[in-house]
Specification:
single chain; about 70 residues; mainly beta; three-stranded antiparallel β-sheet; binds zinc ion
């Protein structure tokens, strides 16, 4: 039986790197899943909703504001 897979991901609000993971629909459908950023300052939460569908949430922390513009210029 073919297993469908989804790639999910987000951009970390703290370190601005993209975090992605490939998960099967089965593992998504078991309920709750966490996808933490390697920097440890944010995580992507996925909740499976009854009736099909997913709720995604990415906590945005005001403790880690965007870096000043001069730090973005290399
Ligand atoms: Zn990060």
């Amino acid at each position: 039986m073919e297993e469908k897979r989804r790639t999910i991901g987000y951009v970390c609000p703290s370190c601005h790197q993209s975090v992605a993971a490939d998960r099967s629909l089965f593992s998504l459908s078991v309920g709750h899943m966490k996808l933490p950023c390697p920097c440890g300052k944010s995580e992507f939460l996925v909740d499976y909703l009854e009736g099909g569908g997913y709720q995604f949430s990415v906590p945005i922390s005001s403790a880690f504001p965007a870096p000043p513009a001069e730090r973005l210029i290399r």
